[in-house]
Amino acid sequence: MNASDHVTICIPVYDGQDFVADTLAAIQRQSHTNFTVLISDDASTDASRESVIDFLLAHPFLPALVLRHPVNRGLGRTRNDLVATARGELVFMLDADNEIYPTALSRLAAALDDDPGAFFAYSMLEEHEDGVPDTLRSCLPWDPERLAEQNYIDAMSLLRRDELAAIGGYTEDLRLHGWEDYDLWCRCLERGLRGVLVPQILARYRRAGHSMLVSVTNLDVSEAESLLRARYPVLASLRTSD
């Protein structure tokens, strides 16, 4: 494994016509050039798919493949379909309304190269609303006890594809709609896996209602936490270890 390994950028899209072209444009500026882009439209009700196709036709040298669900199947299933199609040793999860900076892939891949025991790498994110940055996201290092209390790591990360498949990928349980990334991190805790933080701002996170999660999850927080505790007993042990 080294920083030149092939990366598959996985982009799930649901009603992202206003932002997805900007996301794709940012990918073109990557210093890491050994990558493929996979975009899956999860039955958008707007012109997301057309926006993607128009961008790719205007930029024919961007190595990309567009998939489509005829009916909405949810974020977990869409991400899993992307991972199953990916051919890179590493997969980078990128929502259709976020953007990565030019060195993002190369620095995240280098972090995994430097730490062979890490399952995934993530960076600090500049969180903004309407283009105005106001806070940081995913800015704390991997800490099981902190993660047992709440999810502080965004889904935007670079993961080892084979290990992701081996632990079952993202949950497709609709009761955890909006909690797919947290479920995956909790499974990491249960399996003894971990992530590594690159303490640099390598991407922008848009705080808005246009994403695969629509605007808010329909799931009650207490119900979601109960589901996760039932699935992953290690959460309870970490929360009571103080």
Can you give a write-up of this model?
The protein is an alpha/beta fold. The chain has one domain: Spore Coat Polysaccharide Biosynthesis Protein SpsA, Chain A, CATH 3.90.550. The protein has 9 helices and 9 strands. Helix 8 packs across helix 9 (about 235-240). The termini are far apart. The model is unreliable at about 210-220 (pLDDT under 50).
What is the topological layout?
Layout: E1 7-13, H1 20-28, E2 35-42, H2 48-58, E3 64-69, H3 75-85, E4 90-93, E5 99-100, H4 104-114, E6 120-129, E7 132-137, H5 144-149, E8 158-160, H6 161-166, H7 180-191, E9 195-206, H8 221-231, H9 233-239
Parallel strand pairs: 1-2, 1-4, 2-3, 6-9
Antiparallel strand pairs: 4-8, 5-9, 6-7, 6-8
Helix pairs in contact: 8-9
Overview in brief:
This protein is of the alpha/beta class and 242 residues long. The chain has a single domain (7-239), classed as Spore Coat Polysaccharide Biosynthesis Protein SpsA, Chain A (Alpha-Beta Complex), CATH 3.90.550.
Task: Return residue spans where pLDDT drops below 50 for at least 5 consecutive residues.
Answer: 209-219
> What percent strand?
15-25%
- H and E order: EHEHEHEEHEEHEHHEHH
In total, how many beta strands?
A: 9
Structural class: alpha/beta
What do we call the CATH topology? Spore Coat Polysaccharide Biosynthesis Protein SpsA, Chain A
Major beta sheet summary: 9 strands, mixed
- Can you identify the CATH superfamily? Spore Coat Polysaccharide Biosynthesis Protein SpsA, Chain A
Q: Give the overall average pLDDT.
A: 91
State the end-to-end CA separation: 37 Å
The helix tally amounts to: 9
Q: What would you report as the Rg, rounded to the nearest angstrom?
A: 17 Å
- Apparent shape: globular
- CATH architecture field: Alpha-Beta Complex
| Number of domain units | 1
Report the CATH C-level class.
Alpha Beta
